[in-house]
Amino acid sequence: MEKVHIGLIGCGSISDSHLQAYAANPQVKLVAVCDLNPERARQTASKYEIPGIYDDYKELLADPNVHAVSICTWNNSHAEISIAALHAGKHVLCEKPLCKTVDEALAVQQAVEETGRILQVGYVRRHAANIEVLKRFIDAGDLGELYYAKASLIRRLGNPGGWFADSERSGGGPLIDIGVHVIDLCWYLMGKPKVVSVSGNTYHKLGNRSNVENYAYYQAADFDPSVNTVEDMANALIRFENGASLAVDVSFSLHARKESAQVAVFGERGGAEIEPALAIATERHNTILNVDPQLTTPGFDFVDSFKREINHFVQLCQGEAENLCPVEDGVEMIRILNAIYQSAAEGREIRLD
I need a surface site. Which of 21, 102, 126, 164 has the fewest CB within 10 A? Predict the structure, then answer.
């Protein structure tokens, strides 16, 4: 089978996760990279031995040697580049979130429908090994109908700065950056029920806490502590048409004693903790059981999950799989995120039905 020729657009921090996974896939040939910063594009190309180097994504898309692209740019350019790539005949893996606004999301969906090309949204947590295992339990009915989920990703000093902290480019802070992962994951595991309303809050209290000393944290490639126009923390309650609900809270900056990741779903016949590690609770013979699946990695493995995500995209490009993260799911997630921000801004519940 012919190898899939990949071009990558945007050589920021997340691009390495894509490129490492592509480089490990024998069905892939990395042929082009693009970045607004020509030197960064050259450095990336040198590191991965990629022949094509561009500083204009339109030139990369015009390259007939490129079959498919990973889009790893700022959120405010996702829609524009995705639409251009689809119309250029390329398959697309677009990093989450799909874009910033619902109108943009619908335009991307229209481009997918018009071109017949593949677009996979970068919901990497759907591809995690522990999620694949849990999904088998859920699909077999072992947990029954899932009616409640809760998700919490707390960083106490975790604002990456740079474009992440610039709402014009990012669309928001922890809600749209890390919240999108766990909201999507819970919604996916619950069977993607129709959303009817959201009620949310955002807080701008602590800033990026760049004054803190003696504690290292992740910084974006364009880190600038003087720029911060995004929320520190957000929470929301999402209600679904089938009566189920999802509670979520996420933060970049919070006076918490430690970082934490807690994600769980609950059903009529059982429940499952997903983070920090997969564990199942159920009943048998009038006795509560705690079940610990024996997995090499019971929690979220960042590197392996990206490898699985990229491998899935390559299979899609070769016509060998069903899209696990289609554009329609990306559109729905933007509806939810936008509604949470609207609810927080207006101080009221937002109806989506």
Answer: 102
Cβ burial, residue 99 (10 Å; 0-12/13-18/19+): buried
Is the alpha carbon torsion for 246, 251, 254, 260 positive or negative? positive
Q: Are the C-beta atoms of 299 and 77 separated by less than 8 Å? A: no
Name the E strands within 108-191: 119-122, 146-154
- Residue 302 CB neighbours (<10 A): 12
Q: Token pair of 230, please?
A: 């995004």
Omega before 276 within 30 of 0, i.e. cis: yes
Q: Are strands 68-71 and 28-34 parallel, antiparallel or unpaired?
A: unpaired
Per residue in 115-164, pLDDT tens? Answer: 999 999 999 999 999 999 999 999 999 999 999 999 999 999 999 999 99
Helix crossing, 15-23 with 302-317: angle to 10°? 60
Closest to 240 measured CA to CA, from 186, 312, 281, 290? 186
Backbone angles phi, psi at 174, to 5 degrees: -60, -30
User: For residue 241, how many other CB atoms are within 10 A of its CB?
Assistant: 12
Question: What span, in angstroms and rounded, lies between the C-alpha atoms of 1 and 232?
Answer: 48
- Rounded Cα–Cα distance for residues 165 and 252 (Å): 10
Calculate helix-pair angle for 102-115, 327-346, nearest 10 degrees. Answer: 170
Task: Give the pLDDT of residue 10.
Answer: 98
d(CA 152, CA 250): 6
Burial 195-214 (b: 16+ CB within 10 A, else e): bebbbbebeeebebbbeeee
